[in-house]
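call fold target=Medium/long-chain acyl-CoA thioesterase YigI
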Amino acid sequence: MMHATRSHRRHPAALRGTTQDIGTPPRLCKSPLRATGKMGNAGRMDDLETRIRTSFDRQGMLVTLGATLLDITPGKVVIAVPIRPEVSQQQGYAHGGLAFAIGDSAAGYSALSLLDADSEVVTSEMAIHYLAPGSGQRLIARGSVIKPGKRMLVTQADVYAQDQGKERHIARLTGTMVRVPASPA
């Protein structure tokens, strides 16, 4: 059995300051974000919301599904979609693909909300865990960034089925978004 010598041991004090406070996103945008989740001034927040909404409106699939953006803050996005017969599975529940589509989009837009206007994201990988059937009036996906990076951002989304004002957690997605150059509008 090998024993670590003193020179090979890592002292916890040596690691201090190497991790980032989880509540503060890194400065990936050209304008710094505050830990409060608000940008330096109202104009910059409006720019972020306009950029996300413009991109969202160009997503043919989300438009076809009737999805809407409910909330946009740096590092977090909420998307809702109605549960209609056209997007149900054989037992009448919301199809798992519907939960995946809005969860992936909520996670992706949460990542995009931390990047500058010259960047977009694409999904590199995404896993989903279905927790319960989706029944009710609509699905709500709450996306967030777990670990932001310069090139890759680890994200998650929790999907809830809303029925008469009550929410039931039906899926959790975790994945990786990759920064790519923004495409011309």
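return ok
The chain is about 25% helix and 35% strand. The radius of gyration is 19 Å.
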